[in-house]
Amino acid sequence: MVSTTQSADKQTSSRAQRRSLVAAGVGNALEWFDWNLYAIFSVYLAHNAFQSENPTSALLSTLAIFAVGFVARPVGGFVFGRLSDKIGRKNVMVATMCLLAGSSVAMAALPTYAAVGIGASAFLLIVRLVQGLAHGGEAGVSYTYAAEIAPPARRGLWSSMPFVASTIGLMAATSSAAVLTGIFDAEQMDSYGWRIGFAFGGLLGLFALWIRRTAIETEVFLEEAETVEESDTPATKMSGREILGIALRIIMISVGTNISFYAWVSFAPTNAISQHDMHPTSAFVVSLLSQGLIVLLLPFMGALSDKVGRKPFVFAQGALMIALAFPIAGMVSSAPWTLFVALMLGQLVWACAGAIYPAIVAEQAPTRIRATIVGLVVSLSVAIFGGTAPYLNTWLTSTGKSSLFSVYIMVLGAVVVGGSILIKETKGIDLRDLDQPANN
């Protein structure tokens, strides 16, 4: 009878874990839907929020605000990560989802420069900053949550869910762009078509909020909170040197995922349209097809990392960045198939570490500071190496120095290779083991 009861409890717990993982994933889908919809619709945002006499200047201004949004991410990562380490992962994920849904609706209601002048630019900046705060908190806490909710032996597979969901969110954004540009002509898209995509993001946010209300708190957080509460002495604090070491390792294994995604995945359709005169619908459809294939690859790579380890995947990403930087940059033309090949190569590079990213960054830090340090450092790395990528690429291309951007990617690839050497192998580790020094 006891055995039957224990088995039933275990099955119930397992179902609750899987349901909670899905709840976190839905939020990740929204996070990347509206974040990347900004990049995809940046041309239309530029026409509406800025003076349009100089299209290149307006686009660069829009991309600058795209980068400014990343400045807020580390702040959001730290603030919401700190809250998560204090009051729990689930509560904070609900709060970030409210901000994400609200900012998506606000983006849909963006006033035009023709109507309110510079007020439109200021409105776009404010909404983007709010998005940055929410995204910084959402990423750090959801990555931590996915890693903590997973069984240790399958953490690589389970932790692929945030980026599977993220890619689905990106696909939804790309699908929206493909459908809308197919339905509306250029003038209609510039006027109101792009707003429909952001309005859909607001509805998706409400659905994600409804799903997340059923999520459970992670056991490792509850155990750590109980240990701290029952202890007669405060938990041993980590030294600044130890924290700095953790942060450095996370940054070194993050730069590849950041730059490869924003340079070769998210911004690729917009770059093909603006720099290579590719038809918008063709670019978006090709991007969608390539993303569908990569969604199938992510869980496989996550599961494989549970067998062979995390280090080989991080090393492979860095090596491929070095090898493919120039070929990817040089192959795109106005022909859609060239974008498809470039996207598949770029997404393969991204997926090497992207498939296991939540697991590997969470496995670097103890529970009591995990969400704080993951949220802050991951968001800081995204801001520095991801948010600036589209602007840097566009600017260097406009000045005839596009090759310097490829060199930049190769240098970051070398940093990733170095990170793969520095980190310890963490596949299958029980996250409680990382807390032992503080509890002894």
Helix content: over 70%
Low-confidence stretches: 1-9
Major beta sheet summary: none
Report, as a whole number of angstroms, the end-to-end distance.
Answer: 37 Å
Mean pLDDT figure = 85
How many strand elements? 0
String of helices and strands? HHHHHHHHHHHHHHHHHHHH
Protein model, in words:
Helix 11 (240-266) runs antiparallel to helix 15 and helix 18 packs antiparallel against helix 19 (402-422). The longest helix is centred in the first third of the chain and has 39 residues, at 2-40. By secondary structure, the chain is mainly alpha-helical. The protein has 20 helices and no strands.
Write the layout of secondary structure elements.
Layout lengths: L1 H39 L1 H8 L5 H33 L1 H20 L4 H4 L1 H32 L5 H4 L2 H23 L2 H27 L6 H12 L9 H27 L1 H9 L3 H29 L2 H21 L4 H19 L2 H6 L4 H20 L2 H10 L3 H21 L13 H4 L1
Helix pairs in contact: 1-4, 1-6, 1-8, 1-9, 2-3, 2-9, 3-4, 3-6, 3-17, 3-18, 4-6, 4-9, 6-17, 8-9, 8-13, 11-14, 11-15, 11-17, 11-19, 12-13, 13-15, 14-15, 14-19, 18-19
